Amino acid sequence: MPGRLDLDRALVVGVASSALFDLEESDAVFRNKGEEKYREYQREHIDDVLQPGVAFPFIRRLLALNDLSEDERLVEVVILSRNDPETGMRVMRSVERHGLDITRAIFMQGRAPYQFMGPLSMSVFLSANEDDVREAIDMGFAAGHVMGHAAPDDGDADLRIAFDFDGVLADDSAERVFQSGGLEEYQENESALAEVPLDRGPMADFLEKINRIQGIEESKRLDDPSGYRRRVHVAVVTARSAPAHERAINSIRQWGLSVNDAFFLGGLPKGPMLEVLQPHIFFDDQRRHVEGASLSTPSVHIPFGAINRQ
Question: What is this structure's pTM?
Fold first, then answer.
């Protein structure tokens, strides 16, 4: 087992059971028959293993990165659940049966546990409960609403992550210019400020922690150039196009961060590109992009910025 956990150094992710597992059947019991019948249903099915949900392949691969270090845990995943501790037992038994290295959980009966993200130094909270996600965003935390259906998990160790740029890795100041002034004013603004980095957005801390893991991988590759194959790959998939692409690239560099690939699509649909790229998770701040992408790609809506308050 990997060694000590340093919350300030590790990538800490909070995940609701609704994001990790497929809870459609048990949620239907809650909606149609109420809380007491739901608790009874979970007790009766406590040994029935929950099936993987939208975020499952991503979380499994993320946890597998702990084998890159013998001295410290690089990744920690914590279950954040509205279940009470008793009904939460089914979730934790399913975690164990699936072989996921998750030992920490917070169960709060009927209440959102995202307020504990701060003490746990979490970089993001993933949930299928949109209201919880929006409340977490409003409190200044990075949070995402998982959408779509669980994708088949081929069991390999590669981890491909794709991010939108504005409102996700960066703040939404450039997007606000586009919304208020149109494309021409936006392009002029981004060209004039090409060397001025945007402020970091909600998912920049997550990328920073991923970059740290990629740095460990690069050291292993340098030690074994012919034998070690990198497992983590990061892409930006954005509606930006030239000349606005320069500010995006310069911002990432000046933040001290990096990505492997960048797709500047100039407003073209992202779904077909993602279908080829096949990331295990895609983060975007615009719901319409997420809805399109989620038809083929595990996707997360980050309801950040002015565009999500309209």
Answer: 0.94
